[in-house]
Amino acid sequence: MHDDIIAAIATGYVESAIAVIRVSGYGCYDILKKIFSRKKINFEDKRIYYGHILDENGSIVDEVLVSIFRSPHSYTGEDSFEISCHGGLMVSNAVLQIVLNNGARMARPGEFTKRAFLNGKMDLSQAEAVAKVISAKSSRALHIAQLQLKGNFSNEIGEIRKDILLLLAENEVNIDYVDEELSDFSKEKRLSMVNNIYERLSSILRASQSGKSLFDGMKISIVGKPNVGKSSLLNKIIGIDRSIVTDIPGTTRDVVSEQITIKGIPFTLLDTAGIRKSSDDVIENLGIERTVDAIKKSDIILALFDLSSQLNEEDYDIINRLQKNSNRVIAILNKYDKKSGLFNKGIIPFKRQIQISCKTGYGLEELANELEEIAIGNIADSDIVSMNASQITILKQGMKLCKDLLNDIKGDIDPALISVEITGLIDILDEIIGKITTEDMLDVMFRNFCVGK
User: Looking at the predicted structure, is the pLDDT value of residue 29 above 80?
Assistant: First the structure.
């Protein structure tokens, strides 16, 4: 429970048809009675009231609707209300200022959601999902965030926790009745349970990596020798003539960046300058340096080669440059419509290879599928989760503890020590969803939320 009352413009500081001022905290209705024109009503839960907001002189500031949410039936779990006023910046700020002048303070970023968490309205994984619902860049991302907000991830953690509690209870029997065989859990069964828990935590880690790709996006560098079709590929993917396409080698002198969503996944496409060993053009050399830098920062590298001609020295130079990044490379064999038979794709050492034609569009769907596979893997959308860095670190600690448990059970370690490790594993799961937390962790969790949420 909080003694102070917080307020913010929940719809953001933009000019719009309407604005919503959100107010939360016990005692907030005392403020409303001071500033609302209808003085003699008893504000009932889940009701909307029409009236006017008044300033300190009793003058009308705006015509409004006020929505009432009494504890615990509110977003934060506290008494709260929302004022729907006209959306001009002057009027919405004036209404907010009147609320602040009468006893509220400005809410910090994410403070409404933080209060919802502290009041038991949601756990940390659901709070993370709130941020992702707001920032989702595709309908696919939005759907996955909504599943997490409903508790899919929390339920999975809860099921794993039940298995750990069962393991703990069985181990406690061994401690209390060491000379009696009361447990039907064999050593092999205990090992199997811990290994299953480890695999489920590993699956969650993989799902969180897919979630990061889906919500944060991935960077793709398109590289190749001059005039191999890099700009044509970029233009074909995004559907507009963003890059200049000519038959003159070295047309692109800088890194051209475009945002695009493929299979519901946000990507940043970087069309880079053609790579060649040397050039007398200072500007072109600078472009090549930026290409090398873009390669280092990219999650995926599309390396273009010309199917209509044999590889030359510039192609081999690019292959050599990319060898140490081969796990991030997709070899794009362009000009499929012109292939001459001179090209032997087996001489390109990259595992992923796709034949395409920037002219006809052949192979682009296969490329889209390959990008989805790299970003998401074979994780089902319903299993993808969004976790912050702290939660991922804690999850990895849990996986390490599972490994320690396996070794200790195999080594017939004292059951009392085993119990300590199992209890530690339960604490780790509780920390992931926020049953155990620290103020520092909460600060990290909510600092990037928008004000009013």
Answer: yes
Say how far apart CA 414 and CA 200 lie, in whole Å: 26
**Residues 424 and 80: beta-carbon distance below 8 Å:** no
| Cβ atoms of 394 and 428 closer than 8 Å | yes
Q: Write the CA distances from 182 to 163, 174, 178, 187, 413, integer angstroms.
A: 19, 8, 9, 14, 19
Same topology between domain 130-213+388-434 and domain 218-376 = no
Top CATH class of 5-122 equals alpha beta
- Residue 437: Cβ within 10 Å count: 18
| Cα–Cα distance, 452 to 314 (Å, whole number) | 54
Q: How confident is the model at residue 248 (pLDDT cuts 50, 70, 90)?
A: very low
Q: What is the CA radius of gyration of the chain?
A: 29
The residues spanned by each domain of the chain are 5-122, 130-213+388-434, 218-376
End-to-end CA distance of the chain: 18
State how far the Cα of 7 lies from the Cα of 97, in Å rounded to an integer. Answer: 10
Question: Which residues have a Cβ under 8 Å from the Cβ of 332 and sit 6 or more positions away?
Answer: 224, 233, 302, 303, 304, 305, 354, 356, 367
State the fold for domain 130-213+388-434. Four Helix Bundle (Hemerythrin (Met), subunit A) (1.20.120)
DSSP 141-193: HHHHHHHHHHTHHHHHHHHHHHHHHHHHHHHHHHHHTTTS------HHHHHHH
Whole-model pTM: value is: 0.78
The tens digit of pLDDT for each residue in 46-58 reads: 999 999 999 999 9
- Of residues 181 and 283, more confidently modeled: 181
Q: 218-376 falls under which CATH superfamily? A: P-loop containing nucleotide triphosphate hydrolases (3.40.50.300)
pLDDT tens digit string along 287-296? Answer: 566 777 778 8
**What is the arithmetic mean of pLDDT over 301-316?**
87
